[in-house]
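Collaborator request, handled under Task 6.
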Amino acid sequence: MLAGAVHSESDVLVTDNLKDFDPPTSGPNAMRVENLNQFLNRKLEEDPGRVQEGLNAMLDRNRREPKMMAALIDVMAEGQELRGFAQELNAVVPEGQRGTSPVLAANQRGAAQYTAFEGVARPAAAQAPETAPEVRKSAGGQSAEKAKDTEQGK
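Structure tokens returned to the collaborator:
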């Protein structure tokens, strides 16, 4: 498959078998390898209108379901492979064409939370102290843990 992509001078090789492909990254045969979800999301970002036109043309040719954009988005959202693309597509299609899958609603809640907190500073990561804290000793020369155990009658 890689040889065919190189021979055809492809810019991208789309496959779900990403781990077995090491395409050339420079020179005249340079190309990237993407899974279908990555490829479709990139195309949607580059030209959302063209992607929607292509999907609508495909839906017009379908003899079986799905025949509507909302149904197609729901089918993609319910599967693992294209869920990310379905979520992104659902955000750009007109409201009347949006999917209604619960998976999409969960993504919208997450997006709303992200938007609500956008610009809010994230808490700093906890850092370990540079030196270990000293063990405190009680008046009787016992460690704090031993003193606590003594107080509890152990």
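The cover message to the collaborator said: "The first helix runs from residue 2 to 7. Residues 111-118 have pLDDT under 50 and may be disordered. Please let us know whether this matches your experimental observations."
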